[in-house]
Amino acid sequence: MSHGLFGGLTNYGDRDFARYLRRSFARSMGVSGPLLDGPIVGIAATGSDFNNCHRAMPELVDAVSRGVLAAGGLPRVFPTISLGEVFLNPTSMMFRNLMAMDTEEMIRAQPMDAVVLIGGCDKTVPAQLMGAVSANIPAVQLVTGPMSTGRYRGERLGACTDCRRFWGRYRAGEISAGEIGGIEGNLAVTAGTCAVMGTASTMASIAETLGMALPGTAAIPAVHSARLLAAEASGRAAMALTMNPITPRQVVTEKSVENALRVLMAVGGSTNAIIHLAAIAGRAGVTISLDRLNAISDETPVLVDLKPVGEGYMEDFFAAGGMGAVLRELKPLLHLDTLDVEGRTMEQRLDEPLDFVDRKVIHTLAAPVSAVGGLVALTGSLAPLGAILKRAAATESLFEIEGRAVVFENLEDLATRIDDPALDVMPSDVLVLKNAGPRAAAMPEAGYLPIPKKLAQQGVKDMVRISDARMSGTAFGTVVLHVTPESAVGGPLAAVRNGDRIRLSVKDRRIDLLVEADEVARRLSDHQLSPVPERGYAALYQRHVTQADRGCDFDFLMGR
Ligand code: FES
After folding, report:
1. Any idea what DSSP says for residue 117?
2. Distance from the CA of 53 to the center of ligand 1, in angstroms?
């Protein structure tokens, strides 16, 4: 039930005084008495001049407020940290947990009966969902929505798969500096998140599947009027939750997390989503096992034909039927008794028919884009606690290989030597990057190691690449990521040396360092942890960040 303005009183040792003072100060904001007496819906706004993906935040906030007011409640907008993916140093990943803490504490500390969380860019939706599950106050997730595509000399462009595609061609000498400049101005041309099924759109799809976002809202383009209608509806839904509360922990459960994993596979989603979903689930005390992930991947076909794996962009996905069409197609594989923020089960949600599905973009279960899911987990002597490969975006001829390791000790070493004409590297080699995991480097999206320039210029498009880093959800290639434990904490990755043999077997779900265990132990025996910074958030981060298998959440924030 609603507590309105008097929820969570400030401590003065006199409750009546606290009520009197709060109401008096609230009146200074010019809000009328009847509204102050009713339910309050918080709106977590994450607009920032350092976050292009959230450029439409003001009109989304207005639309959510409209929905709350129309339903008889008082909207209260409050800011939290915003994370613009490409504007943060060293990586946005380092600050996801900080944003989750900010979100959780501000939801809990301020008087609100429900909250609408508005996020979009890669780390913001995971952070908001993590915070919401921990605060456990009724919450509705609204995403800012994907960008629309641009054009360059007749070709359709969308961030950020095309960013990488053209940068690769520029590195290979196929296009000029003038052309790359022209492309730069046309890759990201509207408000909204990256235009493909990258991390942001994958997380939006997951939020809708979990039941935390309203049905049909994940894929609406950022600049479409339907996005504002979705915002208004989210405000009304949050108001309904003030009367009949459903908490995030009733929505985020083992079953809804399994449904989200299915969708992650079916949309050919981002590898990053595994980490974020593990962290969100972890807040509810739910763990994701690698065996279960692989079983779900083997049972769940890829249904959508979108970049970076396929052809289309998010605007095509929306026009084709969006998540509603995907979920209806996946229905035989889903848990149907999960609950959403509108109080409906998955079965009830999917009972309503869709009037149109474009099968060029969203395939049927019977005729999928690919028979198996997009991601697989690997284990083996190189990654005892797991690693991830996006097989849907990889080169099948590289799935079963044994190659010679070409090792880069860290990001700086990579940047210094990758294009050195003297680098001893062949197309059949395995590129290995160390010290780019959560503890060492806040897990940058550096796992998509560039093909060494001299090989790129010979036409080499893909090689096996292995690291403890992440990769952008918009990237592609035979890239083994999230090797756990990371090298900085003494994982076997730290023991790899130039010339060692490494074997990848996607069929067996294995990644192995072909060096005797005694020799690996000897090499690791003098491994030392790097010193932890002495102050500030960096110290908190390094002391408490967990490994990728636990979602890189802080150990003290995880649920039980
Ligand atoms: Fe924000 Fe891609 S940079 S979603």
Report:
1. E
2. 6
One-letter amino acid identity for 121?
A: C
pLDDT at 517: 97
pLDDT digits (tens, 9 = 90+) for 355-377: 899 999 999 999 999 999 989 99
Pocket residue to mutate for ligand 1, from 87, 88, 122, 272, most atoms within 8 A of Cβ: 122
Beta strands 400-408 and 383-390, pairing class: unpaired
Residue 461 per-residue DSSP state: -
What b-and-e string marks burial along 288-314, b requiring 16 or more CB atoms within 10 Å of the CB?
A: bebeebbebbeebbbbbbbbbbbebbb
**76 is written with which tokens?**
């209260």
Q: Which ligand 1 atom is the nearest neighbour of the CA of 201? A: 4
pLDDT tens across 257-307, in order?
999 999 999 999 999 999 999 999 999 999 999 999 999 999 999 999 999
Alpha carbon distances (Å) from 446 to 104, 314, 321, 465: 29, 24, 33, 11
Q: Ligand 1 pocket: which residues have CB below 6 Å?
A: 53, 85-86, 121-122, 160, 193-194, 198, 200
CA dist list (Å): 418 to 350, 407, 472: 50, 10, 19
Neighbours of 415 (CB within 10 A): 12
- The minimum-distance atom of ligand 1 relative to the CA of 84 is 1
**CATH superfamily name and code, 375-529:** IlvD/EDD C-terminal domain-like (3.50.30.80)
Q: Which atom of ligand 1 is nearest to the CA of 159?
A: 2
Please report the pLDDT score of residue 553 as a whole number. Answer: 98
436 Cβ partners below 8 Å, 6+ apart? 410, 411, 443, 444, 446, 447, 467, 468, 469, 486
Token pair belonging to 365: 């279960």
Q: Which atom of ligand 1 is nearest to the CA of 85?
A: 3
Q: Which residues contact 375 (CB under 8 A, 6 or more apart)?
A: 264, 265, 269, 271, 274, 293, 297, 388, 389, 390, 391, 392
149-184 pLDDT per residue, tens: 999 999 999 998 888 889 989 988 999 999 999 999
For β-strands 114-119 and 155-157, DSSP reports them as unpaired
Candidates 50, 29, 52; CA nearest to 40 is 29
Instruction: Give, using CA atoms, the residue closest to atom 2 of ligand 1.
Output: 194
List of residues 6+ apart from 350 with CB closer than 8 A: 327, 328, 331, 336
> What are the residue ranges of CATH 3.50.30.80 in the chain?
375-529
Pairing of strands 375-380, 383-390: antiparallel
Give the mean model confidence (pLDDT) for residues 175-204.
Answer: 95
Q: What is the pLDDT of residues 17-74, one digit of tens each?
A: 999 999 999 999 999 999 999 999 999 999 999 999 999 999 999 999 999 999 999 9
